[in-house]
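JOB MANIFEST
job_type = single_chain_structure
chain_count = 1
residues = 638
[input]
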Amino acid sequence: MKERNSHILLKMLLILLMSITIFPATHAQLPDSCKLEQGMNLGGLADWGTELPFVNLMRNARQWYTKDINNPDAPWNSEQADNLTYRPDGYPTHIPQTITESTYQQKVVTIWANTAGWEAGEYTVLWEGTGELSFWGAQSNLMQTDTHRITFDFNNPSADNILEMTIESSDINDPIRNIRVLMPGAEATYQDQPFNPIWLDIVLNFQSVRFMDWGRTNNWGQGGQDWDDPSLFAWEDRAQMDNYTWANDKGIPYEMMVKLMNDYDLNGWLCVPHRASNDYIQQMAEMFRDDLETERHLTVEYSNEIWNWIFGQTHWLLKYGCEETGTDWPEGVVPYVQNCLDIWTTTFTGELDRLTRVAGVQASWQDVSNRMVENLPVGSFDAITPTFYFGFDEEADAEMDALGAATTVADVAAFAREGMQNMRLWLETQKTELADPLGVDMVFYEGGQHLTAHPFGVNPTYAQALLDIQTDTAMFNLYNEMYDIMRTLQEGDEPLQLMNFSLISSLSSQYGSWGILQTMTQDTTLIPAPKYSAILANMSDCANEVVSIAVPIEQTKLVVFPNPSSTGNLQVNFNTTNAAEFRIEVYDVTGRQVFANIETAQLGSNTYSLDLNLEEKGMYILRAEQGGFVYLDKLVIY
């Protein structure tokens, strides 16, 4: 099944790891360290983003802008992109183009405005068609090695170094198309292995991913604030595999979501576009029903935060669900949610165990949550889904603004703790007023720190403290406190599903520092990542507890430390009466064996030690075997 054969060994190990329990199957409560199932929101594509899931960087290129040809006073952007003609895949039909709106002929250009997430090395550019490409920026040693192949070196990736690519000419009878800008070492493998392995090493720490930003759910298809267009989109209007960039208002194609889940055994969370037609919703559901492996579980949600006024979907639904029908808000939005969930329900008839149908709620706005959910028929949805964010209110924001640059990390943390208690009260109310009376679960679509100023989008006087706490031990402590609160909401024999927000992004005191990492190659020994560390530590604790008590006691005297580790240097100590028969192996996330029969040093009578050096960040499985007993442990390098 596609790439799955290469992961069979890892899969067997993980299945064994997760199947071992320390409590009877009839027990009604999980141990504290296992009450949470950590998932992750994936970041959307942008030319300035530092999360790069694909080895073909054309996928996150900026949408075309234009330049005048032969204009001595040409501006950076002639702003004529909307006046050119294009193929269905988004490539121009020809270059140069003569248009009535400009005295000058036009060519198209794209850019990558932040290369901090790029890998240093030699990049390869491939394309089809007849024409000429040119490059400007921080590249060096640019060479055209073939009619349709260019290489260049990019050895100093940073937020300050950019790359701009121009289509200088393109033949109308054979236009330039299918441009690929490939990361170092990806030319031979990008078609079969399109995902960035550095990115995968981080993502595969998690069991589930949410595709909200991958699908560009917020303002989907609106091209800005186009709230006055009532039209719905047909299935053929969705994001397409051959589009020149996926950093647009439709996002990444569903085919890539399916491939990621199938190839790497991930569960997924889908957000259905708010302006999708019934046929669109139907065909979307059929695609995932038919193409996704049945072992993969889907959570399905209509749009995202349809109560949040900063997003176009909320304004669109207000206009057409409420104002145009004379219905109160938010009640007028309910039929759109219901219609979407009903189509998925019908499509998955007989297979509803593959789905979790969720109704989104606003964690701190109980009245709106009640009026939305209580108007949905019981049985038409499986869970309500609030956030688990902690932040601070306007009063705290004002106090820190008064302190200004004198605000410290400790000040921010103190106000964040107050906000965390508010979060706890809001979620307890959501549980007692909605989830419990309706007999449905609570799952959490986003969460983590929400340390932003009021109103959102301003750069406060205490900006530096907002940035500093993101790499401070205080954030590690806050996250552990947050998870302790979330554990109090869990009941029964299933962990709470938490979709952390989000994977990778740069720090910003103005718009929020959402990423658990700043870049995919962040050296956490130099730039700490306390959010990432706390998430891994919480997951690792549970895995270690489950395994260590699951095998005979004489086999549990094996200790790995530090685990999780930021350096990759670990020490394994174990007791055995026969070291010659004690076999240790380590596998990476692809199922590849990276160590076997490691040389050990004797520390004392029946006590041995070995050193592991795991250079690449990610998750590993340690397998120890002796006398028919197998011991498994998860190793995390962050």
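[summary]
Residues 409-438 form the longest helix (30 residues).
The mean pLDDT is 89.
exit_status = 0
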